[in-house]
Design goal:
single chain; three-stranded antiparallel beta sheet; 5 strands; LITAF_fam; zinc; LITAF; membrane; LITAF domain-containing protein
């Protein structure tokens, strides 16, 4: 009986972890949520903003040989930027995904 309970609890925790990973994969795209300021159900509008990770990568690439302007790539590539999810109605920042 104890082994059945342990296997059941392990499988439940495994499925919860999978759901958490999937939510982090889709975080760069618009999300359906309720705005806390205007209390409306909205589809967020993500804004890509330069953050610490982009600047850190610029310095890192510059130090290790990116002298011909290659070190500026992280400032313009969306994959290195933080994502600010904003409410399209009231322009309130609802969630910020930091890269670093």
């Amino acid at each position: 009986m104890t082994s059945l309970f342990l296997s059941l609890s392990f499988s439940l925790s495994l499925s919860v972890d999978t759901a958490m990973v999937l939510s982090h994969i889709l975080i760069d795209f618009p999300q359906q949520t309720t705005c806390q300021r205007c209390n409306q159900q909205v589809l967020t509008s993500p804004q890509h903003v330069r953050g610490c990770y982009a600047w850190f990568m610029c310095v890192f690439i510059f130090i290790f040989g990116g002298f011909l302007g290659c070190f500026l790539i992280p400032l313009y590539a969306k994959g290195f930027r933080d994502v600010h999810h904003m409410c399209p109605s009231c322009q309130e920042v609802l969630f910020v995904r930091k890269r670093f």
